[in-house]
């Protein structure tokens, strides 16, 4: 049940709305901008995306440790917002001159800045919101659906803006960051509120060398990392260049860009609807099964794209992403708090999800970028689909199931109720 009476719930909904408005605009239109405005080919654009991932790999463990020590303090979140405020000026005045000076250097600087805002920053945003949802008694997925609503709205309007003025979308990002900062400042979370739930009352800092080393001995941790590399990493790599692949089937690139933005908008609105019921579904099937299903849907989407050049089928496979994101976002959060030490939730999320994901993205962005040039999109998609299914299956086999834990909890509750 969505907690519509809680002002904190609505404010966190707003936080998700404005952050993922920025995320959608950058992730959706950056590949097109790099190709159309910056004149980078797929291999050169791959350097930008690889740099984004490498910077995230370095920062995410640090961010995770800091966020677990901070608890619900907002300092790290505020730093991410400060970076977001400079998106408009950076893309308008700095990025292209840097690329013209030196493509490699410009790509590294640009990728590093975008990573501070997105690839590194998203872990801070999502782990903070997840901790806050448990502390205040609402489902993380229900506030995260506001992010999907923002994604749908801004993917549609962003497409219109991009066609008329490609740089305008980046100034909208800066304005959204300002509103996000005001909203975050307005949220007051008292310590007593944070500790009132049984599952969060012992959530005191527990990040030290011993706890990290113990985590690295956990087979489920490494299984989760492999599954994430095979699914979330390749999800991002697939989406990096898919807009350019999609647009090439149209005689006029503007027509293709416009349709792609409408498809993305539709996909994310569907995603928002799915997000409402996804916590209930994951509670029923278990988060491990949810993560495996996420990987399976991605496999179908990539292999399907490899075997068709029909626009309507490509559009269908694009819309399948509306199922993937809710599956992944809800499952990963629930799996972490079910299987691992809850006091390390931000650290584990940063390591097992974001760092593992960005390691995969950094590697596959370069490899797939070269393959696009050498063997074409469709053959590359076939290689990608085989990689997905292998890594997802191996990861799933290594992971401990949370379904048994869920069933045990339900049984204990029934016994307690009967007594």
From TrEMBL:
It is a multi-pass membrane protein. Keywords: Cell inner membrane, Cell membrane, Membrane, Transmembrane, Transmembrane helix, Transport. It comes from the Bacteria. It is found in: Cell inner membrane. Pfam families: LacY_symp. Its main location: membrane. The chain crosses the membrane at residues 12-33, 45-63, 75-96, 102-125, 145-163, 169-187, 221-238, 258-282, 289-307, 313-336, 348-368, 380-399. PANTHER family: 3-PHENYLPROPIONIC ACID TRANSPORTER-RELATED, BLL5896 PROTEIN. This is MFS transporter. It comes from Staphylococcus succinus. The lineage of its organism: Bacteria, Bacillati, Bacillota, Bacilli, Bacillales.
């Amino acid at each position: 049940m969505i907690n519509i009476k809680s002002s904190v719930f609505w404010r966190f909904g707003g936080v998700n709305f404005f952050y993922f408005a920025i995320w959608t605009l950058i992730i959706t239109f950056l590949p097109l901008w790099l190709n159309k405005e910056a004149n980078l080919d797929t291999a050169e654009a791959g350097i930008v995306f690889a740099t984004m991932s490498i910077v995230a790999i370095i920062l995410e463990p640090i961010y995770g440790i800091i966020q677990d020590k901070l608890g619900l303090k907002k300092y790290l979140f505020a730093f991410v917002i400060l970076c977001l405020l400079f998106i408009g000026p950076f893309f308008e005045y700095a990025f292209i001159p840097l690329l013209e000076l030196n493509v490699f250097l410009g790509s590294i600087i640009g990728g590093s800045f975008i990573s501070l805002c997105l690839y590194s920053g998203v872990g801070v945003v999502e782990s903070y919101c997840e901790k806050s949802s448990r502390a205040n008694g609402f489902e993380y997925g229900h506030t995260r659906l506001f992010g999907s609503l923002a994604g749908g709205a801004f993917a549609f309007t962003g497409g219109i803006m991009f066609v008329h003025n490609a740089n305008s979308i980046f100034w909208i990002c800066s304005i959204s960051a300002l509103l996000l900062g005001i909203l975050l400042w307005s949220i007051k979370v008292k310590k007593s509120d944070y500790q009132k739930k049984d599952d969060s009352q012992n959530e005191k800092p527990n990040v030290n060398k011993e706890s990290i080393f113990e985590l690295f001995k956990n087979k489920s941790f490494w299984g989760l990392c492999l599954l994430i590399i095979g699914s979330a990493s390749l999800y991002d790599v697939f989406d990096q260049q898919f807009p350019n692949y999609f647009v090439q089937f149209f005689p006029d690139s503007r027509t293709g860009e416009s349709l792609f933005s409408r498809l993305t908008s539709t996909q994310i609105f569907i995603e928002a609807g799915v997000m409402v019921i996804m916590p209930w579904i994951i509670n029923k099937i278990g988060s491990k099964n949810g993560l495996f299903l996420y990987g399976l849907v991605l496999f179908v989407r990539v292999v399907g794209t490899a075997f068709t050049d029909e626009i309507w089928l490509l559009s269908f496979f694009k819309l399948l992403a509306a199922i993937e994101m809710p599956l992944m976002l809800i499952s990963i959060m629930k799996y972490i708090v079910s299987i691992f030490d809850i006091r390390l939730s931000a650290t584990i999320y940063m390591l097992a999800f974001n760092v593992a994901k960005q390691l995969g993205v950094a590697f596959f962005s370069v490899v797939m970028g070269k393959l696009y040039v050498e063997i074409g999109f469709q053959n590359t998609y076939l290689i990608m689909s085989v990689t997905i299914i292998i890594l997802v299956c191996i990861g799933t086999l290594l992971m401990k199931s949370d379904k048994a834990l869920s069933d045990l909890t339900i049984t204990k509750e029934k016994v307690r109720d009967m007594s």
